[in-house]
Amino acid sequence: MLYSKNTNEIRTLIAQYTQAKILWVDTEIADFNTRNPRLSLIQFLNNEKDITGETVVVLDVLNQPEIIDEFVCTIMFNPSIEKVFHQASYDLKFLGKNKAKNITCTLEMAKKIPYYLLPLPNLSLKTLTEALCHIAVDKTEQTSDWGQRPLSDIQLQYAKMDPVYLAMVHQQLLQLRLLNNPNPATEDLSYLTTRYLELKQQLQLLTSEFEHIETRLKSAMQTQEVLETDNLKLSQSQRKTIKAEFAQLAAVIQEHGLEFNFPITLTQKLQKELKDVISELSLQVETTNSWRLTAKQSENINQPDELDF
To answer: What's the whole-model pTM score?
Structure first.
């Protein structure tokens, strides 16, 4: 790890990485739980093969706004350098906001991966690192005092490893994204069809059982006057729907000269009621196409009405 708090050295390092194609970046924030958080450290890695943090650069920028601005202008605003963050929206509050270019967020990448491929309780960097890279991560120092100087060896060790974990998680997510977005032209239709029908049948069975158990559970808890168990809580909510006669509503709008000028979707029922009068209206017609999969009848595949219970 290269840890620098010297202004001239930091400027040299920033200039040195202007030719980088990709940087895995993290920050540490002082006074993060106050109204005036301050950027304490900027850590970045340029080598995805570094699993020890040996090549991580840690810039100590506490109370150095000019250095922060230089990093932002030189690195963050540079569209040629891909900057990878986890939960980028937070780091960008201190590093260029929405003017930053070529930003990749591993949190957003993870959100786009289907749950069955990434079945995790949350998508924090710690959770992703432990699940995808099989590395135990200690986040104790995350909430330590990043405004103190000098920083402890433990803090610096923690700071240098986050870009390493970030790079490792990023590589794993890229592979998962390939699984999630295969080329439709080369998909195995036979395999997909078989799996689709298997899952469809399982889903029908699970949905049926789930809805039945849920109904029984609600009824039992209400009858036994149990609003909470060790794992569940029963709550009641009310939704109020306000309706008015259309003719009366139209009369009130006209009487008070209200400006109600927006399109109303004409359902098939309304179209039928309007009959030929509909031709007197200035219609906005929107056409959308949708595709539907329908299982063909087969002796080998149970259809919904053929399931044995």
So the answer is: 0.78
